[in-house]
Each structure stands twice: as structure tokens, then as C-alpha cells.
């Protein structure tokens, strides 16, 4: 194998039991800003808590008292570009300090719900 590939590409899969670790949490998608990628009130993401920017990906940020999913990219000038999937919402920039105050976690997995009714029965 080529040394040019990231080591995680050929790593063993994460054991299923690891997905129940207390450092992971399931976060509901609470607004429509990321539609069609995520449906408000129907989709979930798995999040690892973080206090800083790591790399361009999806993050959960606290905005106006709510936890929201956003696409985030660091810029060469040090600013953090925060984006949504819907054009009705404006992109904006944060300083690294503002981002570190707002960030709650980094999205590591999408949770696809197949049967909402069965989930409701299982937890009631």
C-alpha cells in the first residue's frame, strides 16, 4: 500500500460498542438551515465534544441558545467561515476566539432513522 494514503483509510473499523461511549452524543438537527442534507426534527448526528477548530467539516455550534449543525472552514486569514446548505441563510465569519466560544462538538457520523414509531415505543 502507498504511504500517501491516510493511515485511517486502512484502519480497523470502530467496534460497535465504542459508539455507546460517554464521549459521544447524539444531537438532533433542530433547524432547517442544513436541508436537504439534514431534515429538521427528523435527522440526527453523532458528535464528539470539542472546544476548537480541527479541520473543514460539520460542527455543532451554540447560536442564540440553540445547538445547530453548520459547515465550517478555516480561512488563511485566521477567520472561520460558517455556512449552511440553504441559500435563504447567510454565511458568516467568526474569529477563532468567537468560534471556540460557540463550538460544542464536531460531527463524526450521521444517524439515519428508519422507523420513528418503533423508536418512540422502545423508549416509552
Mind sketching the topology for me?
Layout: E1 25-28, E2 44-49, E3 57-63, E4 66-74, E5 80-83, E6 92-94, H1 96-102, E7 103-111, H2 116-123
Antiparallel strand pairs: 1-2, 2-7, 3-4, 3-7, 4-5, 5-6
Walk me through this protein's architecture:
With 124 residues, the chain is mainly beta. The protein has a single domain, classed as Ribbon (Umud Fragment, subunit A), CATH 2.10.109.10. It is 12% helix and 34% strand. The chain has two helices and seven strands. It has helices at 96-102, 116-123, and strands at residues 25-28, 44-49, 57-63, 66-74, 80-83, 92-94, 103-111. It has a seven-stranded antiparallel beta sheet. The longest helix is centred in the C-terminal third of the chain and has 8 residues, at 116-123. The chain starts with 24 loop residues before the first strand and ends with a helix. Mean pLDDT is 90; it is low at 1-5.
Summarize this structure as a short list of keywords or feature phrases.
34% strand, 124 residues, globular, Umud Fragment, subunit A, 12% helix, 2 helices
CATH class: Mainly Beta
Instruction: Supply the number of helical segments.
Output: 2
Topology pattern, helix = H, strand = E? EEEEEEHEH
Q: What average pLDDT do the residues reach? A: 90
Based on CA atoms alone, the radius of gyration comes out at: 16 Å
